[in-house]
Amino acid sequence: MSRAIFAVDTTARSRKWRAFLACGRTLLALLVLLGSQSASADPVKADQALQFADIQYQTFKLYYQTGKQLVLSGQIEAARVNFQAAHLQTVMLNIDLQQLSLENVDSLQNGQCNDCNLQQQAVTYSQFAQVDSMVLQLHLANLSQTPTSQASMSQADLQIILLDLDLQQAEYYTHAAQ
Questions:
Q1: Closest by Cα among 127, 65, 125 to 94
Q2: Do residues 122 and 170 touch, judged by C-beta distance below 8 A?
Q3: Which one, 36, 81, 132, 171, has the greatest CB density within 10 A?
Q4: pLDDT at position 77, please?
Q5: What does the pLDDT read at residue 107?
Q6: Residues 6+ apart with CB under 8 A from 128
Q7: What is the pLDDT, as a whole number, of residue 20?
């Protein structure tokens, strides 16, 4: 007799436990659904790309300015080395800007933005900055070959101004969209 009572008691506990688990799963699924609509994009990847781009850009500027000063002082070979290093930095900057652009596009396409109009602006300016860095690469390739070329230096200076503006806008809109 005790066996029959024990079996019934186990079955009753099992049903209660299954019902409790089912309610728990339902509640968890409901919370996930409610939270997913208001979830914003994880800004960590875009922030990392921005930080890496900033490091590359600041390093580029250091090499570029040093190269310009060396040209003015007549140290052409040393200037060439600095312009080559600046060229390499723009290649790396372009990679970081491409990553930033991809992260911004991904956030936009997945709807992971608080303001998708601002996210579209972030995409646009990160792509502009990427184009600016590619054009800057061309001017630095010329300066690596001919460090005294005033035309290439003037074009690089102009491109740096454009890149500064587009990087500032890309950073602003990337943060504002999140």
A1: 127
A2: yes
A3: 132
A4: 96
A5: 84
A6: 166, 169, 170
A7: 54
Residues of the chain scoring pLDDT < 70: 1-43
Q: Give which of 141, 132, 144, 135 is closest to 170, Cα–Cα.
A: 132
Dist. CA 150–CA 142, nearest whole Å: 11
At residue 14, the pLDDT reads 61
DSSP state of 75: -
Q: The tokens of 48 are what?
A: 């990392």
Distance (Å) of CA 123 to CA 94, 106, 118, 131, 169: 15, 9, 9, 12, 10
- Reading the block at residue 136, the tokens are 């800057």
Q: HSE on the CB side for 28, CA within 13 Å?
A: 6
Give the span between the Cα atoms of 151 and 133, in whole angstroms: 18
Against a cut of 0.70, is the pTM above it?
yes
